[in-house]
Amino acid sequence: MAGNTFGTYFRITTWGESHGKALGVVIDGCPAGLSLCEADIQAFLDRRKPGQTRYATPRKEADEVNILSGVFEGRTTGTPICLMVPNTSQRSGDYSEIASYYRPGHADYTFDAKYGFRDYRGGGRSSGRETIGRVAAGAVASLILKELGISICAYTKSIGPVSISMDRFQPELLGQTPTGMPDAESSAQAEAYLEECMQNHNSAGGVVECVVDGVPAGIGEPVFDKLDACLAKAIMSVGAVKAVEIGDGCSVSTAAGTENNDAFYMENGQIAKKTNHAGGILGGISDGSRIVLRAHIKPTPSVFSEQETVNKNGEDILIHIKGRHDPVIVPRAVVVVESMTALTLVDLLFAGMPSRMDGIKKFYGK
Amino acid sequence: MAGNTFGTYFRITTWGESHGKALGVVIDGCPAGLSLCEADIQAFLDRRKPGQTRYATPRKEADEVNILSGVFEGRTTGTPICLMVPNTSQRSGDYSEIASYYRPGHADYTFDAKYGFRDYRGGGRSSGRETIGRVAAGAVASLILKELGISICAYTKSIGPVSISMDRFQPELLGQTPTGMPDAESSAQAEAYLEECMQNHNSAGGVVECVVDGVPAGIGEPVFDKLDACLAKAIMSVGAVKAVEIGDGCSVSTAAGTENNDAFYMENGQIAKKTNHAGGILGGISDGSRIVLRAHIKPTPSVFSEQETVNKNGEDILIHIKGRHDPVIVPRAVVVVESMTALTLVDLLFAGMPSRMDGIKKFYGK
Amino acid sequence: MAGNTFGTYFRITTWGESHGKALGVVIDGCPAGLSLCEADIQAFLDRRKPGQTRYATPRKEADEVNILSGVFEGRTTGTPICLMVPNTSQRSGDYSEIASYYRPGHADYTFDAKYGFRDYRGGGRSSGRETIGRVAAGAVASLILKELGISICAYTKSIGPVSISMDRFQPELLGQTPTGMPDAESSAQAEAYLEECMQNHNSAGGVVECVVDGVPAGIGEPVFDKLDACLAKAIMSVGAVKAVEIGDGCSVSTAAGTENNDAFYMENGQIAKKTNHAGGILGGISDGSRIVLRAHIKPTPSVFSEQETVNKNGEDILIHIKGRHDPVIVPRAVVVVESMTALTLVDLLFAGMPSRMDGIKKFYGK
Amino acid sequence: MAGNTFGTYFRITTWGESHGKALGVVIDGCPAGLSLCEADIQAFLDRRKPGQTRYATPRKEADEVNILSGVFEGRTTGTPICLMVPNTSQRSGDYSEIASYYRPGHADYTFDAKYGFRDYRGGGRSSGRETIGRVAAGAVASLILKELGISICAYTKSIGPVSISMDRFQPELLGQTPTGMPDAESSAQAEAYLEECMQNHNSAGGVVECVVDGVPAGIGEPVFDKLDACLAKAIMSVGAVKAVEIGDGCSVSTAAGTENNDAFYMENGQIAKKTNHAGGILGGISDGSRIVLRAHIKPTPSVFSEQETVNKNGEDILIHIKGRHDPVIVPRAVVVVESMTALTLVDLLFAGMPSRMDGIKKFYGK
Q1: A301 Rama sector, left if φ>0, alpha if ψ -120 to 50, beta otherwise
Q2: Domains in chain D: how many in total?
Q3: How far apart, in whole angstroms, are the C-alpha atoms of residue D283 and residue D246?
Q4: Pick from A161, B347, D96, D152: most CB atoms within 10 A?
């Protein structure tokens, strides 16, 4: 089935394999009149580009984006925007061995089970490079949000056992540390932890947190296309994510009702909340306060230790994975989580336009 | 926008408010030839029916299902199945007060923000009664899964601070304890905790776990309609759920790669896994092992303590909620989580049929 | 697959069989705040009700609509609207014979081929009664259009060889003649033709034309969800329709380019067209002028002459259809074509709201 | 809204403007294991390529296709297939004049009305070059149909007043005449008519007919996603099509029921029909006989005669269109109609797989 499309009104379809000719995305439903150039998108792609720190694969990929359609004289035309990133660093040879066996923690086996065979080069479609299309589209979604006064910010909340302290949160460090942590002290600790992982031929996971300010109350479409439900799908669809939390998330299950309820009060003539355990969403609809979500990301499955597995002949074997792999993918996943959040919000902002008869009449001048 | 539909190939659309004439669901895409009668569905609905334990609202609702279409001579015809449950216990008077203010933790404010007004009786569409349509459809999905040799089982994993022990898991207690816990000792502890909550005019949350056996490897549609992504949306769309975990869930973020990878090995000529940290899903596709997910559910927001909030005139007020409310909704949510899981699986099982050219040719006799 | 849903933003799902308990529709995506009561819908349903003229089946069906959800205190709430029409005149006995053979021109054989068996009573889901859900939803769509200053009008253009003359078009006769023709002279001729058909145990077809005024320029979503493409699907999905024309339709194929082009000119400061061969649609987008379409409807397949066919045992047989059948369905199809047109327009009007960045910013107050 | 996607199971999204960097399509839902190479697609594209006859624009466009993803070692992988055709012959200068006014019969005005501005070069997205994506995807769909024993054949049925005679139908002439007519005598007459049109600075329309053999009975999803409804949308979405007919089409409206019904009979143990007025579709479902449809295509709106229109300043003006334009687009539309038919059929063949419980069980080995 067709499963590579996300969104209904602002709809993206991503395509491309790790070692194919190119990867990219088609954005359908982007409104006309948005200023857009390649540099806008490149800035986002550069945030996920490998080879920038010690903790990311040393592959050098230019990952340069081309706008193939949908933009004319610097503005979107309302027609589909095709964004393409050619693949340039394809050392297929490195991967030939994995054609014959199933790496633990990877999708090799499940792709074979589903499709009968797979493009094994660099993981093919299940590679982290698949996120290029998501991030390129996320850049466009973020520009739309900006026009609507909405700002998104994602960062590494934890790597392995090391969590940032919200007291030490330094906005100016966003995107500046090799760990993605906006807290210099925690970031240094996390780096030490990663060094240890690398020495042990091991890998680490972590948590990405994303906060969104400026979303008006009323966004989300109950009962299935709720804002939190759509965000959960968006975030869980990112490879390696195994849990998604909204607001207080898992900890609500042990809280008492009196603690967990957020009291409303009036502030400057506006309805506000004294706390935000709900993470900005009530009944699947935004309540006007900050939206907060977290993605829990597993450790990179490509570890350099010896592992047990089976090959395509159905034999138990021992393997040693080679190649170029990130000891942790969390820092590079930050912009992916931010992109998926942006894409979800734009789709639901558009979806919400025909919610009320009075708004529709006004829109059409009646 | 239209947000009340779930699924693409096995597609349900739920409708109805807490105190309207009826609630129900239309199932479109149910294959022809499935044996189906009202008793099959009633059995599921009875599992979510209120008034059965001390820890559920004492409202007495018959919640009797009618099959209005799509079934002929005891079998589904392939045409839409409309299931209707008339509302019979509608004490609207109890709710008239809430028309004027916004209950903390409820969707009163966000519905008003979105739609301009709301059916305030019993929470209207944001009531837990909305799940009637989900569960009725879930009953049908479960019958389909059964025909395919797939079994689902959900249960309460924890209430407040009390968690079941997997060592004491008693399958014969499934659905038999007032807490939904299949562990007599933990269930008794949880009951004691709930008594305390009730005395304190407070409420409790908890965790529902769902496990699925028999799903063949290969189900799920990367990269957005992954099995885990679709499950996350399905489960997060249930009111009061604030986090969803797959397999080891949140704990993967602190695990090392060597621990978290599940080694493959051959068992009786089949590929198997030594562990199941992944919860049966790799790269968004089922791997043939047990699927495991958890939903974290917040405490019932309707607590009988005094609460601060605002009214529709924009005034800060104190309120005391009355009416009939569950001190914990976790036990009644078990069948809802199970239903949403079943609905997701059937949709993706159908979606997966045209994945391979050889399978399609065989299906069409070529 | 699920094929009983029409529309994306304003989405209807119809359900029900000719002789089941009830038929109906769920409307999802109806904006909040529209005044709606059962009488609004009943007026539309009464236009398709049988038993009203000599040329419609003498079955007496009350076809009374119930609003089961989505309306509170006389206004839509933004939640799904379930409309139900109970079946009351179910003489199943009349149809028992057709269980064993395939009526020519009907869907008996194709339903069996697809689903393995069928609800044969009155044609089951392939009965003309299926249109009840379409018309009930069409009534709601028409109310929305009215609020936006858009008016739809459909009528019988021809029955068999008798066509109305546009010179004699009498708006006050709309819906007043037994033929659905707003031209007294042609209607009388068509009645004479139908009498002849009935005497010959035969049946007639015809053409329904639908015109829409007040649609703003800019509606339709190229390149696949064009306004004309969506209308074509909507109209062709009505049972018995075998051709759909937009504007000059088939006759464009023999026209010269200079004839067929509609010249633009300025009229009172607005762009207007000197002719309307295009039927109000250019490049799949409304151009602000009158939208014109036609549906070509086949003669009722249930004729009372002897017919050759086969039975389920694979034997050639001769049959004589009994029961209550319309000698022509065109007059009753008028409101169905009008409904499908209304549903398509509302969906695309809503779809068009997020087309331009400036419109979105203004909508969200930025 | 996003309107550039066609299909649900086999889903294509086209992108690109006439004078942008490239045009193309992403195919999502193509099953794994189909043999596919660029030559397969090029063969289809060459059938729509301009510059091949006197009656097509003399622009020379290579229109060479690149497969950017979804194919590995000569077979489809089940992941999205992105096909790109770079634009090489972009004489934008020719079109600069049309930026300021609205050509009659074109989408210039409606695109401006919808989006606020447009890529005016060569018609931008409303150019006939948009069909490149449709045809490239149609080539893939046709390969799938071939594997299932289904063959499609489209041809020019008429140009202006000249229609082919089915008695003189010469299959070996398919695609061999400059008119697309598989009848040498009619083709010569049509050429004479086109010469006359060109001398008069005028243009011609015509009819494309498409027939499909080998579709099993049972394809189509009532009541909205009927086979004929989906075909009608597919065909009407092609620029310049103003009417769609199935089987006898418009002429059913004047036929008598006894004539129009197709009698069933047994032939070699199979159910067959003595006639095929229905065009192979009953109740929206294929009946196993030949599917027949026709598209009525308007004359090219770019005529070289003087025309009245308005400019963007709201002034009445006279224009003389220059540039390179086809005097008739019917011959080049043949492969587009064939492609849209193939795309619709593949989508519905896949959609039909989960129609019956017994088929699903067998598919999953239960």
Answers
A1: alpha
A2: 1
A3: 12
A4: B347
Residues of chain B with C-beta less than 8 angstroms from the C-beta of D361: 147-148
Distance CA B233, CA B238 (A): 9
Cβ-based neighbours of D155, under 8 Å, separated by 6 or more: D164, D174, D180, D181, D182, D208, D209, D334
Q: Mean of the pLDDT values across residues A241-246?
A: 98
- For the cut 90, the answer to whether the pLDDT of residue C283 exceeds it is yes
Structure tokens at B307: 């609460």
Summary count for chain B: helices (H), strands (E)? 8, 18
Mean pLDDT of A257-279: 97
Q: What's CA C14's distance to the chain center, in Å?
A: 13
pLDDT digits (tens, 9 = 90+) for B224-277: 999 999 999 999 999 999 999 999 999 999 999 999 999 999 999 999 999 999
d(C-alpha D68, C-alpha A17), whole Å:
9
Dist CA D229 CA D226 (whole Å): 5
CB contact under 8 A, A8 and C8: yes
Integer Cα distance of B77 and D15 in angstroms: 40
Residue-range definition of the domain harbouring residue D57: 5-363
- Chain D positions touching A66 (Cβ under 8 A) are 21
Interface of D with C in 325-344 (CB under 8 A): none
CA B294 → CA A244, A267, B210, B250, B334, distances in Å?
Answer: 11, 37, 6, 10, 11
Cis peptide before B252 (omega within 30 of 0): no
C36 touches chain A (CB under 8 A): no
**Contact D79/A17, CB-based, under 8 Å?**
yes
- ipTM > 0.95 for the complex: yes
Give residue D321's pLDDT: 85
CATH of the domain at D189: 3.60.150.10
Burial class, A23, CB count within 10 angstroms (exposed 0-12 / middle 13-18 / buried 19+): buried
pTM over 0.80: yes
Q: Which of B102-106, C90-94, C335-339 has the lowest mean pLDDT?
A: C90-94
Q: Reduce the DSSP state of residue A303 to 3 states and report it.
A: coil
* CA dist list (Å): D70 to A130, B181, D32, D130, D271: 12, 47, 9, 22, 40
CA distances from B313 to A165, B91, B114, C73, D314 (A): 40, 26, 17, 21, 49
β-strand pairing of B291-297 with B306-310: unpaired
C351/A contact by beta carbon, under 8 A: yes
